[in-house]
Amino acid sequence: MQEDHNKKMKVKKGWLAVQVGLEDESSEEGSTPQRFVIPISYLYHPLFKRLLDKAYEVYGYHTDGPLKLPCSIDDFLHLRWRIEKESNHHGAASHHNHHSHHNHRLPHALYNFHSC
């Protein structure tokens, strides 16, 4: 779920608003940080925990507004895709049979995000 226009929209219980974008991204081609709403369960995922550690290093614990993530939007979308793929894979064995002929292994280089 991506919400760009209404910054003050309430977030449903069990979800968390985050702001994604690198500081230097905002100067390039007019791109600005974007707001996303993610399930709280992401906070327990190892890949997301790494991003939270980096957010602490960059911004500290006390920030105003949504949780800021020091990550490019493209890398965040890829991270979200990986988390969703893993949770769907573990949650539905019958769903796995439909995609067994596809091998969605990622190249080793993508395991370390460029900006995350």
From TrEMBL:
Pfam families: Auxin_inducible. It comes from the Eukaryota. Belongs to the ARG7 family. This is Auxin-induced protein 6B. One of its GO terms (biological process) is response to auxin. The lineage of its organism: Eukaryota, Viridiplantae, Streptophyta, Embryophyta, Tracheophyta. InterPro entries: SAUR_fam.
